[in-house]
Amino acid sequence: MKTLTIKRNKFGVDIQEVYFQPNGCPDTDCDLRVDFCVPEPSKHASRALTAVVDLNEDSEAILAGFRRSYRREIQTGSDRDEFALNFTHDPRPPDIHRFCEAYDQFAQQQGLPLCNRNKLLFFAGQGALMLSSVRCAHSAHVLCQHAFIGDGRRARLLYSISSFRLYQYNSHQRNRIGRAHRLLHWADMNHFKQLDYTYYDLGGMAVRQNARLENINHFKRGFGGQERHEYVNFTPHNLKGWVAMQYLMRKL
Questions:
Q1: How far apart are CA 167 and CA 160, in angstroms?
Q2: Using CA atoms, how far apart are residues 7 and 186, in angstroms rounded to an integer?
Q3: Fewest 10 Å CB contacts: which of 139, 153, 156, 247?
Q4: φ, ψ dihedrals at 139, nearest 5°
Q5: Of 219, 221, 198, 216, which is closest to residue 206 (Cα–Cα)?
Q6: 29 or 221: which carries more pLDDT confidence?
């Protein structure tokens, strides 16, 4: 398995981020270490919730765990040959910049933070970034896109883009994009399963009470994954790291 870790400098603070390492990995010289998606809390931790699909199950069993309406929409989308799927294992900088531009437009519509391009470029350089998309088969119009990081065992959805909001007054197009998005998740699961990944991580779920975020939780629960309580652990090494930790913990 790859060790997914990135060191970055934010506001003069050297931060080391580590993903999926319950037993930890050696610290580099940093002010603050942040461990994501770990099962046990440290002294300074924020609780997180995610949904994970076990890819060791056979495909029929995985699909049977989906909400019935999801299974129907995936079957409909597959039967009609209306969508074209694409997977990129070795995204180049132009691929990443195109994805980020699309995500930033989506994020501005949704009031979300912009895409972290440097993080995606870094993970691409480590061979740990994968992009997927679903297009209209006839017009090549991109309907939904995903960005994942993976260590060979667990693939985690980092960013998701849907053109749903562009058609908020067109119920036919909204339904079509909904089918496309569910089909893309299903295709992603099968793709990572073929690569011998063990877990498909839907990218985290909201723990705060919020109507918009609860709609996202409802969407993700439709894929039947096991909900897991995990933690983001913070380890400050000096005063700068401590101050940065206080700021970051408030943002989570």
A1: 17
A2: 33
A3: 139
A4: -110, -10
A5: 216
A6: 221
- Domain 49-228 has what CATH class? alpha beta
Give the start-end residues of each E strand in 94-248. 129-136, 142-150, 154-162, 199-201, 226-236
CB 186 within 8 A of CB 146: no
How many Å apart are CA 14 and CA 7, to the nearest integer? 7
Q: What angle do CA 118, 88, 230 make, to 5 degrees?
A: 60
CA 139 vs. chain centroid, Å, equals 27
Range name among 56-65, 167-176, 230-239 with the lowest pLDDT average: 167-176
| pLDDT at 52 > cutoff 90 | yes
Q: Are strands 83-88 and 129-136 parallel, antiparallel or unpaired?
A: antiparallel
The domain segmentation of the chain, as residue ranges, is: 49-228
pTM of the complete model beyond 0.85: yes
Q: What angle do CA 81, 76, 103 make, to 5 degrees?
A: 75
Residue 137 DSSP code: T
Cα dihedral sign, 91-92-98-101: positive
- Please, is 55 exposed, middle or buried when counting C-beta atoms within 10 Å of its C-beta (0-12, 13-18, 19+)? buried
Q: Are strands 226-236 and 83-88 parallel, antiparallel or unpaired?
A: unpaired
Residue length of the chain: 252
